[in-house]
Each structure stands twice: as structure tokens, then as C-alpha cells.
Amino acid sequence: MSSVIIENLSKSYGDVSAVDDISLNIDTGEIFGFIGPDGAGKTTLFRMLTSLLIPDKGKATVEGFDIVKEFKKIRSLVGYMPGRFSLYQDLTVEENLNFFASVFGTTIQENYNLIKDIYVLLEPFRKRKAGKLSGGMKQKLALCCALIHKPKILFLDEPTTGVDPVSRNEFWDMLGYLKNEGITIVVSTPYMDEANKCDRIALMQRGKILETNYLKNIIARYPGKLFAVKSDIMFILLKDLRDYKNSNSVFSFGDSLHYSDSRTDVTKDDILNYLKSKEHKNILIEEIEPNIEDCFMDLMSK
Amino acid sequence: MQNNFIIESENLTKKFGHFTAVDAISFSVKPGEIFGFLGANGAGKTTAMRMLCGLSIPTSGKATVAGFDVYKQTEQIKKNIGYMSQKFSLYDDLTITENINFYGGIYGLSKSKLKEKTEYLLDLLKIPEMHTGKLLVSLPLGWKQKLAFSVAIIHEPKIVFLDEPTGGVDPITRRQFWDMIYEASHNGVTVFVTTHYMDEAEYCNRVSMMVDGRIASLDTPYNLKKEYNAGNMHEVFVKIARGR
């Protein structure tokens, strides 16, 4: 069953096409990630799906309701956490929660079960003004407020941007818990490595979807062979591999380079012999499985 | 303190009331080094960086940046450093040329120097002439970030501070950005950089990790991985941030 059905959805701002003819389905109960850099169109798409922005073309339904005609239904069904902190800075933690609960005609107590695990972390600060919270705590409060009316589906727009790797992991753990509660989670992120936390992902770039699939399928569809290569002088290695006549792409990845070759039958020894002829020392070559960034960069350059 | 280091910090401390944001940090950075300044949110990175940029006076301790004292010579520090962050870089409602002129002007570049620099930058960044008169807002983010970096070093500072320069940037542009960092470093500019991308930590000559206001670890990525028995810098980060 699909929670979200998007058909040919488009939105432009003047000459800029922010969301360009997007179509896809999001299954009920899955964690679905929109992954792409700033300017990919993630926020515009989220604002349309939460009924805050009217599309130029195309249509979409959320939990069976049309995002334009039935916007009132949608607003009571979805939880939305915008990218920018948008709670009341001069209300306390508790006041913010009470406010959002009353807007949705509920109380903190009624749905306490859902927010309990997150709220206990906030509780020591419940009398503190939201504006005085640390980044991590603001994020937790925003999530609580988005959950207070027990939404069927949650839209989280870049919840982990600017957050350090450890705190990001903790946030994803919370999302896993919410998924087990049966909530469909739609999340956007510029961090490619978070793809492995999602069930399915859509890779986005300049308003378009490059590919929608399970991560393992995206990786399986990477064309050709990929190698991790190291030698003593990395920046000369980068240049030599780029100049190699069979080179398809060369990118830095941490302490090694990822090299893809235009030949399908290429072996480690072919590359090794070339690099030896260029007098590289301590050469290490290993055929590797591509990661999400390799796939994204490959799709981007097509 | 001697001047063979471009940054020297000794027990540098900043308190806000009873809260110690930066707790007696001591370290030094060599000229031309790419120095990664990592840590969890709230570990004190921004506060430390603000002191080193001459924007915040320390509570105690000593530090010099480009040979200037962080208490008494904050104006000289500002003239001798470059700064760029993801959040604040260039003006969206100015054109490329106007942005270059504006920042060059602020740093007191002469008219002839400014003209020469503008031509050099446009050529370096391979920005076609038809785009130089366009408002920045209409340019792809990748170009903006690269331009922002070039503008941050337009006055040829000895050191440039980069605060999460690649946040939200696509993976290809992110790597092109690091090519520029390498080139600057090769030309003798010291690069002091924060990032949340742990693969980028691998590109630094040395990396420091802040935890609760202190520097918990400082070494080359190679040595840190060895010390923490980790396969990559992400594992090192998690181990240090969680207290092993």
C-alpha cells in the first residue's frame, strides 16, 4: 500500500525549476529518504506534500487525500518538521508541546507513549525557553511537537544537517523506533551515508530524481568495476589515474582514491602495471563495491 | 612564544558565566598545514574559532595567530586571516564581480590589484564572461562555494578559517572544493577547517578532536586510526566522542 503517490509534480520559481516532473510512490510504514545536495528541490517537494505550497503541475496524494483539494485532511494526518527551527523561541519546552497539542485538539498525556523515549531526554529542560536549548535538544523538541497528534506519516526536512556524526546516529535510532510504531517516515538529507538508514531512497539533483530504489539495487546497478587505489604520493596518483587512457572516473575517498575503468574486463594487474610504469611506490589496489556517493556521482555525470 | 608556528595556543580558555565552553586548549599549527578541527556539536569548536579569529576575547590562556596576540591585536588578526563558512559567505543579491569588488575593497586592495585579482579569479574558476554580471542567487551552489573560498583568500592571508565549508554541497563539488584547499595549502596558506564529513578529515595533515571544551586527541589521521584501532576517521570520531 502506498502512503504517498506523486505524479508528474512540478514547481518553478521564476526561471528556476525547483521540482521538475517528479513521479514516485512511498509505501506505508517505510522509511523513505530523499537524498541530494542543497538546491536539489527537497524542501519544495516537502512543502507541496504537506500542503504548504501549491504545485504548478502534476498531482499527489498523501494517505489517499489530494494535496491541493483536501489540504485540511492532510494537515491533521501529517507531522512536519521543517529544516529551519520553527517553534516558539520564547515559549518553554512544555509550553511549546502544550500549544501544538491543543492546536491539534489533543493533550500531551494522550499520546505520551509515542514521544516518551524522546521526551525523557528533554524533561530536565522542560521549563527552559526553546530559544535557549542546544541544537540537539531543539531537534528533539521539534520532533516531539511533530509527533504530538500521532500522525500517520512524518515529513522530516533535513533533520540532521549540521549535526555531528554521533548525534546523527542517535537521531536515526529514534526514527527506527517510530517506524516500529507504524509511522511512515519521509526524510530528506544531504548526507549520502544516511542512505543505509532508509528502506528506499530517491537520489535528487536540480529538481529531478536521478533514481528511486533500494540502496542495494542502486549499488548493484553501478556500471563497470570500481577499485580503491593508494600509493605513496596521492596527488600524483590522482593525476596519473585521470590521465590513464582507460580512465572513466577518479575521486578521492578518505585515504584512498576510487577509480573506475572504461573496460569491462579490466583486472587489478592492468592498473598495477600502468602505475608501476609511472613509478609509483607501495601501490595498493583492491576491487570494491561502490558506495552511495560513487553511485550518486556516476548518475550525476550522466 | 616563537613564530615558527602560524597558530599557537596555550591553555586557551573561554567561560560564559559558570559554563566553560573552551577548557585550556593547547596546540600549534604549522604554516601551510591543513588542520582539521573536529568535534561534536556543542564541544566548543565555534567558541575556540571565534577567539582565534579575534572575534571573542579569551577568559584566560595565551594564543597567537599569524604572530598576533588574540587579546591585544585582534584587528591585525582580522587583516591577516581569511574566513568562510557555509552559512555566511557571499551576497546573493550582488553579482560575481560586485562580490569580488566588495570583499577586495573591505580588505583594502588597491584598484589595480583588485582588477588583476578579479581577472585571475574569473579565469581560475572558469566562470564564463556572460555570467559575471549575473546575481549570485542564480548560480549553482557549487560555483558559489568555490567563489566564496577564492574571495576569502583574495587578500592573500597567511591562514584561512573554513567553518563547515562543504555542508550541503554535492559530492563532486565537495571534492573539487578540496582540490582548491590543497592548492592553497601548496601555495603556503594554512588551512584551519571544520567539517562533519569524516572522509574529509582524512584529507587533513593533522586532526584535533574536541570533547566537552577540551582537545581529546590531536594527530595525523594515520596515527589516530592506529591509536583507536579504527578502519576510518568516522570510527575514530565515534570512539573519541563516546569516550572510547
CATH fold type of the largest domain in chain A: Rossmann fold
Helical proportion of chain B? 25-40%
Distance between the termini of chain A: 32 Å
Kindly report the name of the CATH homologous superfamily of the largest domain in chain A: P-loop containing nucleotide triphosphate hydrolases
Principal-axis shape of chain A? elongated
Q: In the CATH classification, which architecture of the largest domain in chain A applies?
A: 3-Layer(aba) Sandwich
Biggest interface, chains and residue tallies: A-B, 32 and 33 residues
Strand order of the largest sheet of chain A: 6-7-8-3-9-10
The average pLDDT of chain A is 94
Structural class of chain B: alpha/beta
Major sheet details of chain B: 6 strands, mixed
Mean of pLDDT of chain B: 91
Low-confidence stretches of chain B: none
Quaternary organisation: heterodimer
* Strands of chain B, count: 10
Q: CATH-wise, what's the superfamily of chain B? A: P-loop containing nucleotide triphosphate hydrolases
- Label the CATH architecture of chain B: 3-Layer(aba) Sandwich
Q: Report the C-alpha radius of gyration of chain A, rounded.
A: 23 Å
Percent of residues in β-strands of chain A: 25-35%
Compressed to H and E, one letter per element, the order of chain A equals EEEHEEHEHHHEHEEEHEHEEHEH
Q: How many domain units of chain B?
A: 1
